[in-house]
Amino acid sequence: MPESNQPTRVLVVAEHPAPTPLLREAMRERAQRGPVRFLLLVPNPAAVEWHLDPSRRDRVRTAREELDGLLRPLVAEVGAPIEGTVSVRHYVMDAVEEVRRTYPFDEIIVETRPHPIGDRLHLDVVHQLRHLGVPVTPVFVETRAAQPA
């Protein structure tokens, strides 16, 4: 936990640069509980099969530009400071571990979908994130419409 005079650092993991209404609500609720700073992390938005495609970096750059344009109104809506980053990593845990090296965090809010058997097999992202030893708040969302290419 942060020192008593420091805001809590919360990592927010979103599927896309534009957070869903449920994720924005979770951020607002967290901000209302006390001083907080958010880092909004978007894992690589390119499909995993694009892993070797050089255009995947273009997708990351486009997502960063979109995220940068959304931060100011999101800060006003949430009522707390928010930084944003888009990872070149596709998998949530890889992206989180990468961010963790430069941005220590005290809590995580993660946008995810309910997995029919993943939680029983301990394969779900929430279970994996809890191994980091910080509180994890899942925000379960329905399947999102495909993002434009």
Question: Which secondary structure elements does this structure contain, and how are they paired or packed?
Answer:
Elements: E1 8-13, H1 21-32, E2 36-42, H2 56-78, E3 82-86, H3 92-100, E4 107-112, H4 118-121, H5 125-130, E5 136-140
Parallel strand pairs: 1-2, 1-4, 2-3, 4-5
InterPro entries: Rossmann-like_a/b/a_fold
Organism: Paraconexibacter antarcticus
Protein name: Universal stress protein
Describe this protein's structure.
- The protein is an alpha/beta fold and 149 residues long.
- It has one domain: Rossmann fold (3-Layer(aba) Sandwich).
- Helices cover 36% and strands 19% of the residues.
- The protein is built from five helices and five strands.
- This is Universal stress protein.
- It comes from Paraconexibacter antarcticus.
- InterPro entries: Rossmann-like_a/b/a_fold (IPR014729).
Helix-strand topology string: EHEHEHEHHE
Shape: globular
At the fold tier of CATH, the topology name is: Rossmann fold
Number of domains: 1
CATH class category label = Alpha Beta
Q: What is the overall pLDDT average? A: 84
Please provide the count of β strands.
5
The neighbouring-strand order within the major sheet is 3-2-1-4-5
Q: In DSSP terms, counting alpha (H) and pi (I) runs of 4 or more, how many helices?
A: 5
The gyration radius over C-alpha positions equals: 15 Å
Low-confidence stretches: 117-122, 145-149
Sheet with the most strands, sense and barrel status: 5 strands, parallel
- The CATH architecture would be 3-Layer(aba) Sandwich
Instruction: Say which CATH homologous superfamily is assigned.
Output: HUPs
Strand content: 15-25%
Helix/strand class: alpha/beta
Distance between the termini: 40 Å
Fraction in helix: 25-40%
InterPro entries: Rossmann-like_a/b/a_fold
Protein name: Universal stress protein
